[in-house]
Design a protein that fits this description.
Elements lengths: L1 H17 L18 H10 L7 E7 L2 E7 L8 E6 L4 E6 L6 E2 L2 E2 H4 L1 E8 L1
Antiparallel strand pairs: 1-2, 1-7, 2-3, 3-4, 5-6
């Protein structure tokens, strides 16, 4: 029962993010670290026609992380979370409904700092 409630909270959190205002441009308030250039280009090209796709900066577990949210074009879509050195630290969502990153509930502990790109 606990797992279902926690999983529901995670998806409610994702839903709140999805319902935020949409824009098709890069944020001028934040510059991605240089190592993200290729990943950014590949991601924005691949998901350019997919609604609710985003690249978001969060503060999580005392560090800045960057989340690449795959949107609604993929039924089991998820979120790849990277540290600012481009090392992937976790994958959230997907068919398994993963909601923890490094053993910590992401939705309960991540603070949105900046939306870099969204569709």
């Amino acid at each position: 029962m606990q797992f279902s409630i926690t999983k529901s909270i995670f998806f409610i959190f994702l839903g709140c993010i999805v319902l935020s205002s949409c824009k098709d441009e890069e944020s001028d308030d934040y510059e991605l670290p240089a190592c993200f250039t290729e990943l950014y280009d590949l991601f924005t090209d691949e998901f350019d026609d997919c609604p609710e796709t985003k690249i978001i900066v969060y503060e999580f577990d005392g560090r800045e992380v960057i989340a690449f949210e795959q949107g609604i074009c993929i039924s089991d879509a998820g979120i790849n979370v990277y540290e600012t050195d481009c090392e992937e630290i976790c994958f959230l969502g997907g068919i398994a409904g993963i909601f923890e990153c490094d053993g910590i509930n992401f939705s309960e502990n991540a603070v949105l700092k900046n939306i870099i790109w969204e569709r």
